Amino acid sequence: MPVLAMLFFIVPVIEMVVLIEVGSAIGSLPTIALVFLTAVLGVALLRQQGAATLLRAMRRMDHGALPAQEMLEGVVLAVGGALLLTPGFVTDAFGFACLFPPTRRFFLQRLLARLQLRAQRGAQGPGQGGTIHIIEGEIDRRP
């Protein structure tokens, strides 16, 4: 949670600095137009990638398989879409990275590896970083 709090304060500052620098280099109106253009292009790409992911998920379900990969891709697409609708060039760069299939799959592989590592740490026995909860009780067998 502290990382998210830091990002909440740091990212807007970085965005403002980048917007000011770009605005001073190309002018304020072209900068604003560029921000709108990236949002429009991002929404179009989000629609295209979202539809393709939904189609793949439906195909997997038709074959009786769970579309887990496609569900996770949908989450990354939603995050990418939110980043693209946020004004700024830094968030747009990360948003576009979430929408392109190669970088999206790279992010998913990293995320799944971290989750798997975290799950392995939680499943370890005593003395290995995990915890075991013992619940005591009695069994009363009646004939």
Explain this structure.
The structure is a single chain. The protein contains five helices and no strands. The chain has helices at 2-26, 28-62, 68-85, 89-99, 101-122.
Task: List key phrases describing it.
mainly alpha, single chain, 0% strand, elongated, 5 helices, 143 residues
Number of beta strands: 0
Q: What is the molecular shape?
A: elongated
Oligomer: single chain
Number of helices: 5
Percentage of β-strand residues: under 5%
Q: What does the average pLDDT come to?
A: 86
Order of helices and strands: HHHHH
- How would you sum up the major sheet? none
Catalogue the unreliable spans.
Answer: none
N/C terminus separation: 54 Å
The helical percent reads over 70%
Quick description:
The protein is mainly α.
Tell me the layout of helices and strands.
Elements: H1 2-26, H2 28-62, H3 68-85, H4 89-99, H5 101-122
Helix pairs in contact: 1-2, 2-3, 2-4, 3-4, 3-5
